[in-house]
Amino acid sequence: MPAGQSAEDPKPARRESDLVIRSPLPAWIIRALRAGGIKRMSLLDTLSDAELLAVPGIGKRALSIIRTVLPPHRGAGRRSL
Where does the source fall among the domains of life (predicted)? Predict the structure, then answer.
């Protein structure tokens, strides 16, 4: 067993990253989102289409790609045009 780790304290399971930079989105969309202050997929999921289109560098094509990458929305936060 590695030093500093006991049998009672196993390593926590790795969680899937919520960071936009670790998403499967194309680099040009990631750059635009990060420049617009959006760094987490969880935040991205709550924004309406109009709010996303207001981010410089995000147009209808980028919006379409973003919506295909995000899991189907379960809440009422996302609003479309």
Answer: Bacteria
- What CA–CA distances, in Å, run from 38 to 20, 24, 55? 8, 15, 9
- Report domain extents, the chain: 20-69
The whole model's pTM is what?
0.70
Beta-bridge partners for 16:
none
pLDDT (tens digit per residue) in 15-46:
568 999 999 999 999 999 999 999 999 998 89
Better-predicted residue by pLDDT, 55 or 12: 55
